[in-house]
Amino acid sequence: MTKTVPQTEEITPAPGAAQQDKERAKGGGLLGLVTANLRTSGIYIAFVAIVALFAVLTGGDSLSPDNLTNMVLQYSYILVLAIGMVIVIIAGHIDLSVGSVVALTGAVSAVLVIQQGMPYWVGIVAALAVGIAVGAWHGLWVAYVGIPAFIVTLAGMLLFRGLTLQVLDNVSLSPFPREYGRIATGFLNGLLGGYGYDAFTLLIGAVAVAGYAVSGWRARTARIRYDQPVESLDLFLLKVVAVGVVVMAFAWQLAHSRGLPIVLIVLAVLVLVYGLVTTRTVFGRQVYAIGGNLPAAMLSGVKVKKVNFWIFVNMGFLAAIAGIIYSSRMNGAQPAAGEMFELDAIAAAFIGGAAVTGGVGTVVGAMVGGLIMAVMTNGMQLMGIEQQVQMVVKGLVLLLAVAFDVYNKRRAGASR
Amino acid sequence: MGNILEMRSITKTFPGVKALEDVNLAVRTGEIHAICGENGAGKSTLMKVLSGVYPAGSYDGEIVYDGDPVSFGGIRDSEQVGIVIIHQELALVPYLSIAENIFLGNERRGRAGLIDWNRAHSEAETLLRSVGLRENPETPVGQLGVGKQQLVEIAKALSKNVRLLILDEPTAALNDTDSEHLLGLLRDLRERGITCIMISHKLGEIITIADRVTVIRDGRTVETLDMAAGEVTQDRIIRGMVGRDLDSYYPERASHPGEEVLRVEDWTVWHPSQDRKVVDGAAFDVRAGEVVGIAGLMGAGRTELAMSIFGRSWGRNISGRLFVHGKEVRARSVPEAIDHGIAYATEDRKHYGLNLIEDIRRNVSAAALGKLSRRGWVNGNEETKVAEASRRSMNIKAPTVSSVVGKLSGGNQQKVVLSKWLYTDPEVLILDEPTRGIDVGAKYEIYTIINRLVADGKAVVVISSELPELLGICDRIYTLSAGRITGQLPVREATQENLMELMTQDKEVAA
């Protein structure tokens, strides 16, 4: 039937886009892939460059077993926050309150466990409950009352900081019992033995690499079955080998230090779960749809209020996890805990390619964005650079990352 | 009479595409010169070259203005010599007053560089009078209708001592009365010696007002027709635009209406913020295999009627009864409406229909993700297959389903919208202005798709401002005036004249 349609519309839409798509479809070499996807791959290149730069500047210290272990412990809670934050940002919102929520959840936990002497798991459950309640509070105002998230969470930032001071009676509480401290400072080590290195850590690393390769292969064969373009086999293998080398080198270094940090396992599970939630579930799709075009999402039958509500509940939940990890690492709760965390989490999301206007961003991107900040901060600390210089550098990196993003969009838009 | 403007062999290349190739345009002083062409033919690009949006050096060729070669580095340069462009999307600030908008970037300064408001307001009043707009210059522009905003734009152009006025689709968003007024004003300006270039899709309008027409196709000038030299008909212009005769604008279709699919009774909708009824006791029905048209002037409540039926997505205090296949249903939200087999393709696909930053695949699946998922997990491969099937059957011109929708042409975007709604497997499709802003060839394709749908037994409701379109594709046409259904005509009895009569009926009574 369509064959009878007259072919008058000869103008193919935006040949620039067509070309780009063709390149992607062809698979091309690594270079072709990189130039075609500069926007998405730029972040990884930048990450590798920054890691290499600080490895050189610190004479290899930044990649030492102990330092890598330290970095994991030191930045895990920011990365946890960034997972929730990037989802909030994709939907076109922002959350300024997460620092205060980290403090409040840690404080509630500390009061119950340290002051009241309850078992450590009561503290964890209570912190999660408080985080979810805070998220529901924000979700209620944003989704059902219709107040912009900027205002709601700015209010929340004050509100929950105030409650933290109230709960703690304005004093620090410490120390937690040992079990609680293990969450952030514990390691799995020596489970399978090993001479000077931890075999278990290496095994987990190998399992992760194998999982990556198998799932990648299955996705690839499925795409072939559905007659979709795939990257060339060489490129696929190259990617698997590259990921394998990086992961195993990382695991090797960890195994030489104190073993597998428990927070790393928590973080890996969260990244995996939320990576899948954002890309493969109906909920994830609806988040992108709301951020991309709100009225269109509404008229496509997306229950916008419900989705927005759960986005904030989820943010509260993840803020509580970050609060537990942070209080565990600090071995106590302080009134000023978590200040500026929201800015680090937001910066991670934007460096990782999320768009201020919503609809764009990935969990993995936010993780890499967070790691870029982490590697830079850690590297500068190792080099003994003063605090003030560190802040200036981090500020400039955030600005340049977003400028690069805007530049790329404009370049893509110019072909229209 | 000499030429005020000559553009000679203009060639403009974007990465990977020649938008303009060896285009020539000569405009005589004091004429209204129309430019016609399909969407994407290069009309807007040509005007952007002329006004300096694309600065000199970014294109090849020569622009001669007033006998001298010129090269503009930006809009300011071209405005300096009296060339002003008014874009299709108006560039007014809604919260600023009329006077502030008119003198924006060109403020009337008094002593010490401060703005002289008295002078600005009195000058604004003079300008408003000259464009026939009786409004207080202190009124915020956002409170004016589109027609009046268009006049403010022209007043703004006049304030810059315009000599060559360029209008891009000036009447696209206007109703007939406002269009008439605008065209009258253009004649007026011609009397005053202002030359005018007008880009328009409305060929009827061009024939009544233009002195000459230049037709552009695929980035090249095809011809310039002189209205005075002989009779220029719409068909003649269309032949130039598409490069051949369109034997028929509308594909043939045999009509076999079946069972009733949708019936609406006593449907009343109130305005969400004002205390008035926008739809008042409307009733209509559609059968399987039938295309039903809804004709009405702007503001008659067409879109409001459709959106309130589609899960109450517009208005408040909605009352009335809705029947699908003879059974009364409640559709209080969009998901419920979709479940009952109702689909609504909006008139504004960019703002309400599509996620422009996503690809074809995710737009096609957006309204029926449930069909592609199990326990909340989306089957991405199946989704690709569905989108690929739509791309082929709808003839969406894009290399793959991963192409970003924002980069497609209007006609192809509309096909994505239709694909999305077809995938929800609807009983009845309500298409609001399905061919707005898309070119002649793509329109024909959309009509063919509509025919295919009704041949498959779907029921289709088409809302359109273009009466010839409704007469060309519908089986029956309802007329809507001030929120009331004022008539119903089988298409063989309907003419533009009797429809228009019904569309304007009762207006005073209802108001």
Automatic annotation (TrEMBL), chain A:
What the protein does?
Answer: Part of the binding-protein-dependent transport system for D-xylose. Probably responsible for the translocation of the substrate across the membrane.
Single GO cellular component annotation? plasma membrane
Transmembrane segment boundaries: 42-60, 72-91, 96-114, 120-140, 147-168, 195-214, 235-254, 260-277, 307-326, 346-377
Membrane topology of the entry: Multi-pass membrane protein
Region annotation Disordered: where it falls in the sequence: 1-23
Which Pfam families does this UniProt record tie to the protein? BPD_transp_2 (PF02653)
Q: Where in the cell does this protein reside?
A: Cell membrane
Looking at the keywords, is 4Fe-4S present? no
State the name under which the record lists this protein.
Answer: Xylose transport system permease protein XylH
| Principal subcellular localization | membrane
From TrEMBL, chain B:
Kindly give the membrane topology term recorded for this protein.
Peripheral membrane protein
Listed GO MF terms? ATP binding; ATP hydrolysis activity
Entry keyword Repeat: yes
Q: Keyword annotations for this protein?
A: ATP-binding, Cell membrane, Membrane, Nucleotide-binding, Repeat, Sugar transport, Translocase, Transport
The record's section on InterPro entries has: AAA+_ATPase, ABC_carbohydrate_import_ATPase, ABC_transporter-like_ATP-bd, ABC_transporter-like_CS, L-arabinose_ABC_transporter, P-loop_NTPase
Does the entry feature the keyword ATP-binding, yes or no?
yes
Give compartment(s): Cell membrane
Cellular component per GO? Answer: plasma membrane
Q: Which Pfam families match?
A: ABC_tran (PF00005)
Q: Where is the ABC transporter domain?
A: 5-243, 262-507
Entry-linked NCBIfam families: GguA
Protein name, UniProt field: Monosaccharide ABC transporter ATP-binding protein (CUT2 family)
